[in-house]
Design brief:
Layout (H helix, E strand, L loop, with lengths): L17 H24 L4 H24 L3 H22 L6 H17 L2 H17 L5 H13 L4 H20 L9 H4 L6 H8 L9 H23 L1
Helix pairs in contact: 1-2, 1-10, 2-4, 2-6, 2-9, 3-4, 3-10, 4-5, 4-6, 5-6, 6-7
Length: 238
Amino acid sequence: MSFIFRPVSTPKRIDISLGKSNLIKLLAVVLMVVDHVGVVFFPQLFFLRIIGRLAFFLFAYQLAVGYIHTKDLKKYFLRLLGIGLISQIPYHFANPWEPNIFFTLCLGLLAIFSFDRLKVYLSTPLIGLICIVAEYFRFDYGALGILVILLSYLFIENFIVLLAGQLAIWMVYITLSASNFAGLEFNSLTVYLPVGFLSYLLIRLLPDIKFNMNKYVYYFFYPAHLVLIGIIWLLLFH
């Protein structure tokens, strides 16, 4: 299989404690709730949606951390996919036929694996195909989201290079989508996505303390909060 897979290289290392990693997860969850509460109950307050851009970058960063630290990549992928499938039921009522963020994370994980383990002549077209799928089927953040995740892994050890890379792909994406190149979608959330770059500053500023968060609470919070928001909406408006 040497014509498919790269030789196993020295794994990436990241100097981040479990406590700080859990704090990043908690912050991402809180910002996500702010975003979703804003879009459902306060759509006129667009700044709440802008704040929500921070959450995706934190999730992307944590996905890269998870890829580096996981002992079983298959189980990691299946866990993300399972939560995505469960969450799609409540998510469908707000965004019919659009995949939720966990499917974007699944594709992002495949992109990381492709770059990390496959030969270049296989990984390059596969990553391109993943981006096309994300864009065509209207995954959250589309192709741009996949590239954000991939760069989060590639430059996870160097925040300056990571920030520069993210800024570069955003500028290219904005230019192409503004001209409707290949059907790329141009919208206000894409324009304000650079606000998410502040998430890297938050990661650097978060204290390194002991803080535990059960991984299943972290994952299942997503479908649970969608159901809760849906119930509150029904009680208030129906």
